[in-house]
Amino acid sequence: MKVIIIDDEPLARSIVKEYLQSYTEVTILAECNDGFEGIKAINQHTPDLIFLDIQMPKINGFEMLELVENPPAVIFTTAFDEYAIKAFESNAVDYLLKPFSKERFDKAIQKYLQQQKPAQPKLESVLESAAQSPIQQNRVVVKDGSKIKIIPVSQIQYLEAADDYVKIFTTEGSFLKKKTMGYFEQSLQDFQFVRVHRSFIVNTQLITRIDAYEKDNHLLLLSTGAKLPVSKAGYTRLKEVLGI
Length: 244
Known about the structure:
With 244 residues, this protein is α/β, with parallel strands linked by helices.
């Protein structure tokens, strides 16, 4: 069983290592200090299981997992976080609440060993639930080639559907994120973003003009010069938000 430990606290990593010593079938492939190192190690070693801290500098554990193409099985390790705990409990994914005992650690390992397959659908549900955390709602983390970029919500101009991805247009260019438009519609609704079309979500603060266009449709002009189509349903939503 190939394992990677990802935690910014050396003491926490050493405890996991110590507890794993009683499992002769386990090989620890790498220890990582943060999510950036974690992504590199997972891509390089393709582990069976990772022990992943949630609260880490730069990007947190949830954001790291979103950037991994085929994430391995995960046992989360975390200090108390109401959004994290809610995400775990509602999706039956195991986690270790720091500080944890050897007995509790062993239970988590046994649960993993009893699973026939990694619970991928459950993991995706965990990430969806955890995204409601205020910290994650203020920003979007994307891969930009071999780099990782953190985009503050305030820099997003609009979003466009692109097959299985969403294209995020910002002041620094456009970036792809493997999420749905429905996901962004929900997570950005408190930041003056409106879904004006099946394929577009717009930052309403950048709207300079709304023109009638064809039958029941309209056209948005943004201060950036972009022009976006507005559907009939999108126009209704837009009028509600703008109070017109």
